[in-house]
Design goal:
The structure holds 3 protein chains of 3 kinds.
Chain A lengths: L1 H14 L15 E11 L2 E12 L4 E5 L5 H9 L6 E7 L11 E4 L11 H13 L5 H12 L15 H14 L4 E5 L7 H16 L3 E5 L10 E5 L7
Parallel strand pairs in A: 3-7, 3-8, 5-6, 6-7
Antiparallel strand pairs in A: 1-2, 1-4
Helix pairs in contact in A: 3-4, 3-5, 4-5
Chain B lengths: L6 H34 L13 H28 L4 H31 L7 H22 L3 H33 L14 H45 L1
Helix pairs in contact in B: 1-6, 2-3, 2-5, 2-6, 3-4, 3-5, 3-6, 4-5
Chain C lengths: L1 H20 L5 H18 L3 H24 L4 H6 L1 H6 L5 H30 L4 H32 L5 H6 L4 H15 L6 H29 L2
Helix pairs in contact in C: 1-6, 2-3, 2-6, 3-6, 3-7, 3-9, 6-7, 6-10, 7-9, 7-10, 9-10
Classes of the chains: A alpha/beta, B mainly alpha, C mainly alpha.
């Protein structure tokens, strides 16, 4: 009886672990695996036969020419596009949640509402993505903004931010809402040298904590030991 | 984003600070004289005391048209002469004009109620004022939609001028529509046959409301200039960070 | 459970805040309502007796158009800045997200229409009972219009088409609401039909659309996002 009860409690706790502040589900080693993935967009075949395996603390970098399908692959893993063939599987994470629900996606756009202040924007994401209620959310928002150097600008309407500052706000979102998988599409766009360095440190900290990073990029990201997945005309693999 | 040339607005603000107390006093005085004259004026033999609403309704109707004229001048100032304060004047005049139009509508409706038995009869004059009200509200909506003051100013200026050209056309059309559907109405709101003893308080009330508009307009322009300065400061803060 | 409520409350507050802060907010819908109601007498003449008879119909048509034409931006803004992607990757079922956004839209746009309807009814020479009857049926019926409209809003975003396509798609589905809304209003004033009959059917339509609309819209948003 106690064993059954313990198992039941473990299942319920795992399901709602995301509610508990500070808990990052899947602190065990996680593995994100894509098998034989194919993608068709707008009637055009973007890629096929893509295989990869990414594990905790070991980042993977996506490279390839424009149009090779780096963005499509990231969106596919995030669950925003359905694969034409193949599947993505995550082991070691939260079994009750999909991959996308345990991932951050930073694409070409910066999701913020110009009519709201910087703080209001980030507070919304913290509450919506993490379910963290007031007053606990304020500290997450503050530390997120401080970590990317936007701490002084919280009261400003988000419409007043420059492109680089909006990018940093997107990155602040990843810090304020803990999720194990980071899917980044050219994260250094619009960032100056200092901010790029800061981004590198932030990504390294995430990897050190057992996180997974899959980033598409044209240039170096400053991550040691990154695997490379090259997408292109031939069938791709690591 | 260009920093506002602070020279003209600063001198303007100094002028406003000096003039405003006098304007307030003049407005209060004019209202006092006008309202007293209105109370003492004789009742109409047909409508009784309700004719006194005329002293509020008619000046408001005048001003609703006049303010659109002021905005049209400001629009020319923005588009043709590029005067830096023209769009501030236009932006601040719009809500005031809308308020005067609204008061004209409400007082007109209340004035007609005893006569008509309902609050509204689509009479030619009041209907024109209603259309004017809609145009004011549309203009205010345009001001509030566009964030950048300079772009908003240009868009609003164009809409104001187009509206100014259209207003006589609309007025003519509404008159024509009214005669099409109704025989000549027996009730004329403040027609030309007003006795002089009634005209003087009306004139004074007209001046009083005009002074009210001037006072509120200058105060609103001062506030708007302040608001834009705050916006510039915030933008600079974002740029420097 | 509290996490879901926090998330939905945050979504509702955000949508309401944006609606109020931008471009006149809710008032643009009321302004459109007022304009439509003003246009009708210009078209048919200021015959007060006629206006009184068709007044409820004019008010319902105006509220319907004002509701629907403000809806097509419901998801467009989130789609354009990438927020929709993140909302899809959130842990709240999309159906409930759509429901929350629809409720936020109704509170900021539909409810002001309901409040404005008695004043506009005065322009149409409606008597007090008719004013109250119209307001009550609009209160119960405008949510149905919003819930039906979200399907069109989702399709507009997924198909990346704007303009009149969305209203054309959605308007036929709002016909039952219009029929029973006007019937209930007229029944409330007098006549042979008891008020309860069309009114309860109107309530049923609202409840039905509250379920069907969000489900259809969520499915569209999930699978249409290519």
């Amino acid at each position: 009886m106690p064993a059954g009860l313990a198992a039941k409690t473990a299942r319920i706790t795992a399901k709602h672990a995301w509610i508990m502040p500070g808990a990052t589900p899947g602190t065990a080693v996680m593995e994100l695996e894509g098998t034989d993935l194919g993608c068709v967009r707008g009637g055009r075949r973007v890629f096929s036969g893509v295989n990869f395996t990414v594990v905790s603390s070991k980042p993977m970098v996506l490279t390839g020419a424009n149009g090779a399908g780096k963005s499509s692959l990231l969106r596919l893993i995030a669950g925003l596009i359905r694969p034409a063939e193949g599947a993505v599987a995550l082991t070691g994470g939260d079994a009750e949640l999909s991959v996308g629900e345990q991932a951050h996606y930073v694409g070409h756009l910066d999701p913020l509402k110009p009519a709201l202040t910087v703080t209001e924007n980030l507070t919304f994401w913290v509450r919506f993505l993490n379910g963290r209620a007031p007053p606990g959310d304020a500290s997450a928002v503050e530390s997120g903004l401080d970590a990317v150097g936007l701490g002084e600008l919280g009261h400003l309407p988000a419409g007043y931010l420059s492109a680089g500052q909006r990018r940093r706000l997107s990155l602040a979102r990843m810090l304020a809402v803990p999720r194990p998988i980071w899917l980044l599409d050219e994260p250094t766009t619009a960032l100056d040298a200092a901010s790029q360095e800061r981004l590198g440190r932030v990504m390294q900290a995430h990897l050190d904590g057992g996180g997974i990073i899959l980033a598409a990029t044209h240039g170096p990201l400053g991550l040691d030991g990154a695997q490379e997945l090259r997408l292109g005309p031939k069938v791709a693999g690591p | 984003m260009a920093l506002i040339d602070l020279a003209n607005p600063t001198r303007f603000l100094a002028l406003v600070e000096r003039v405003l107390p006098w304007l307030v006093a003049a407005t209060v005085l004019a209202f006092a004289i006008g309202l007293r004259g209105a109370f003492l004026a004789p009742d109409d033999y047909q409508q009784g005391a309700t004719v006194k609403i005329m002293y509020i309704h008619v000046p408001n109707a005048w001003l609703s048209m006049a303010v659109w004229g002021v905005m049209s001048l400001a629009a020319l100032g923005t588009l043709v002469w590029r005067h830096p304060l023209a769009d501030v004047a236009a932006k601040c005049a719009a809500p005031l004009g809308a308020s005067f139009t609204f008061l004209a509508l409400v007082t007109g409706s209340l004035w007609g109620r005893p006569m008509w038995g309902t609050y509204w009869v689509w009479d030619a004059r009041l209907t024109s004022v209603l259309v004017l009200f809609l145009m004011y509200l549309g203009l205010i909506a345009l001001w509030r939609t566009i964030d950048d003051p300079a772009r908003a100013g240009r868009a609003a200026a164009i809409l104001t001028l187009v509206g100014a050209v259209n207003l006589p056309v609309i007025r003519f059309s509404v008159d024509w529509w009214n005669t099409l559907h109704q025989p000549a109405s027996v009730f004329r709101m403040g027609g030309p046959t007003i006795d002089v003893s009634l005209l003087i308080p009306l004139f004074v009330m007209g001046i009083a409301f005009t002074l009210l508009f001037l006072t509120l307009h200058l105060a609103a322009m001062r506030n708007e200039i302040m608001r834009r300065r705050v916006r510039t400061l915030l933008l600079t803060q974002a740029e420097r960070a | 459970m509290t996490a879901i409520i926090t998330a939905l409350a945050a979504l509702f507050t955000r949508d309401a805040r944006i609606a109020i802060r931008i471009g006149g907010g809710a008032m643009i819908g009321v302004l459109f309502f007022l304009t439509v109601v003003t246009l009708v007498p210009f078209a048919i003449g200021p015959d007060l007796a006629l206006l009184r008879r068709i007044g409820p119909a004019i008010l319902w048509l105006g509220a319907l158009l004002a509701s629907l034409l403000t809806l097509d931006r419901l998801f467009a803004s989130d789609h354009e800045d990438g927020s929709l992607d993140l909302i899809l990757m959130g842990r709240i079922p999309m159906e409930i997200v759509v429901l929350t956004k629809a409720v936020a839209h109704w509170v900021t746009t539909g409810l002001p229409l309901v409040v404005a309807s008695p004043i506009l009814g005065l322009f149409l020479n409606l008597e007090p009972v008719a004013l109250g009857s119209t307001a009550l049926t609009l209160l119960v019926g405008t949510p149905a219009l919003t819930f039906i409209g979200v399907v069109g809003a989702a399709l507009a975003v997924a198909l990346r088409r704007g303009g009149l396509l969305m209203p054309v798609m959605v308007l036929p589905m709002t016909i039952p609401v219009l029929i029973f809304g006007v019937a209930a209003t007229n029944a409330g004033v007098g006549g042979t039909v008891p008020f309860a009959t069309p009114f309860t059917i109107l309530c049923a339509l609202t409840l039905m659309s509250a379920v069907i609309g969000p489900f259809a819209a969520a499915a569209t948003l999930r699978h249409g996002m290519e």
